[in-house]
Design goal:
Elements: H1 2-27, H2 31-54, H3 59-83, E1 87-94, H4 100-107, E2 111-119, E3 122-132, H5 136-146, E4 151-155
Antiparallel strand pairs: 1-3, 1-4, 2-3
Helix pairs in contact: 1-2, 1-3
Organism: Cohnella herbarum
Domain DUF5698: 20-76
Family: Belongs to the UPF0316 family.
Length: 170
């Protein structure tokens, strides 16, 4: 019975990880890759469910199935986080209206759009920057290094067209 419980556990982790990745890819517009993953996902699901239903008299099989599901969600989320699919847009508001920060970021290869804003205590430099999600932390750290008081907001765009990244973004 230990072998069957282990197999149910592993199948469930793989199934739910695939399910999580498929959902994220679907949301990000990667429908063909998501469809491919769903083919393997449904096969794994049917095999795992069949094993659980065949051993429904064993409470441990249902418990292992449920625990495997929870760990599959965590594993799928971890995998997606490591893949860091997609892009993020940062809106940065600096108390210093001088364009030095924008120029440093442009020199580092980032597309930066700037404009002057008006805050409670005076003029602000507002910047909008697009980057790959895998570069998000590096960019954020660089901004905070250059301007520790910068106000930074992250957005995940659903569609990107034209601009600085026109040839690089697919």
């Amino acid at each position: 019975m230990f072998k069957i419980l282990t197999l149910i556990f592993v199948i469930q982790i793989v199934y739910v990880s695939a399910f999580t990745l498929r959902m994220i890819l679907t949301i990000k517009g990667q429908k063909y890759i998501a469809a491919l993953i769903s083919t393997a996902e449904v096969t794994i699901y049917v095999l795992g469910l069949n094993m659980v239903l065949s051993h429904l008299d064993q409470a441990a099989s249902l418990a292992v199935y449920a625990i495997g599901y929870a760990l599959g969600v965590l594993a799928g989320s971890w995998i997606e986080q490591k893949l860091a699919l997609g892009y993020v847009t940062l809106k940065v508001i600096s108390n210093n209206p001088e364009p030095r920060l924008a120029m440093v970021l442009r020199d580092a290869g980032y597309g930066v759009t700037t404009w002057l804003g008006s805050g409670r205590d005076g003029d602000r430099l507002v910047m909008e920057i697009l980057t790959r999600r895998k570069n998000q932390k590096q960019l954020h750290d660089r901004i905070i290094e250059l301007d520790p008081k910068a106000f930074v907001i992250f957005h995940e765009p659903s569609l990107i067209r034209g601009g600085f990244w026109a040839g690089a973004v697919k």
